[in-house]
Amino acid sequence: MTGQPKCGMPRAMAAASVALAAVWLTGLGLLAITLRCARQAEEDQRAR
Fold first, then answer.
1. Chain-centre distance for alpha carbon 27
2. For 1-27, what is each residue's pLDDT tens digit?
3. Are 11 and 5 spatial neighbours (Cβ–Cβ below 8 Å)?
4. pTM of this prediction exceeds 0.85
5. DSSP per residue, 11-38
6. What is the distance of C-alpha 25 from the center of its chain?
């Protein structure tokens, strides 16, 4: 990183990518929880 940051474009791009990564990780987490709950419900129904 050489030189002073003259414009806020790189910072905006970094913030956007961080926000996108956070949304993506949140979506993955929700998907994993949903799949786990569905699998648990299936096992519960099978046990009955």
1. 5
2. 566 656 667 888 899 999 999 999 999
3. yes
4. no
5. HHHHHHHHHHHHHHHHHHHHHHHHHHHH
6. 1
